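TA notes, week 10

Several of you asked for a full example with nothing omitted. So below is the full record: structure tokens for the whole chain, then the designed sequence directly under it. When grading your own attempts, check the secondary structure regions first.
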């Protein structure tokens, strides 16, 4: 069966997740994470992809980003993945694959879901019981978006900039969004859309993306269509 074509469109935000094969560790220590981030910075510039939020966990990575071209994210992730596997295999004297197949991704309707997905990403260490406060985890964008830490990796999205006129006001408003966690239907919707390569947003947004790309970003109906009959020759 042919694999599903990946949907990407210039200017439309995407949520990306890439896991280690069989959920194995891909970052053994801070040095590994530093190496990954260094290449991520290099390839975001090379392929013109803006990163708005991220988190590096021990066995997977989340990114929230906007491409400038239709192929920017795919080429960025391919280049990043190859370089990091070479580094990891050499460092730990291993061979073979590191990643769990292709990275997963979904398109995001910014107005409705940008902040929700950003929160979802930066709350990963809290959901994993690694920290109680996202501010205590160094390998995410929370300290940048919420506390003003400088990072050349971060590109502030327009919706983030609307949170306040001054940086301190934006950071305060952003921190306030974390008073509640991502739970229930919203949590499931984000996970399902990313895992299945669908779009996360209104029906109008999904229809617009399908019109622009010619690709399906909604879940198809299961089973055979009404009126189907098996023909015997």
């Amino acid at each position: 069966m042919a694999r599903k074509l990946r949907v990407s469109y210039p200017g439309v935000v995407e949520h990306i997740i890439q896991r280690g094969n069989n959920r194995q560790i891909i970052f053994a220590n801070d040095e590994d994470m530093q190496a990954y981030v260094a290449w991520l910075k290099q390839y975001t510039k090379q392929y013109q992809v803006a990163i708005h939020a991220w988190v590096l966990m021990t066995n997977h990575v989340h990114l929230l980003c906007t491409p400038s071209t239709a192929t920017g994210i795919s080429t960025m992730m391919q280049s990043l993945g190859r370089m990091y596997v070479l580094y990891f295999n050499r460092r730990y004297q291993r061979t073979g694959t590191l990643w769990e197949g292709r990275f997963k991704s979904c398109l995001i309707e910014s107005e409705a879901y940008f902040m929700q997905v950003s929160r979802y990403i930066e709350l990963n260490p809290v959901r994993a019981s690694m920290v109680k406060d996202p501010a205590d985890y160094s390998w995410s964008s929370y300290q940048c978006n919420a506390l003003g830490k400088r990072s050349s990796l971060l590109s502030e999205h327009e919706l983030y900039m609307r949170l306040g006129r001054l940086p301190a006001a934006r950071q305060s408003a952003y921190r306030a969004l974390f008073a509640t966690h991502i739970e229930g239907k919203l949590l499931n919707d984000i996970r399902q859309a990313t895992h299945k390569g669908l779009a996360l947003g209104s029906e109008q947004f999904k229809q617009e993306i399908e019109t622009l790309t010619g690709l399906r970003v909604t879940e198809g109906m299961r089973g055979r269509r009404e009126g189907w009959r098996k023909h015997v020759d």
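Confidence is low (pLDDT under 50) at residues 221-233. Use that as a sanity check on your answer.
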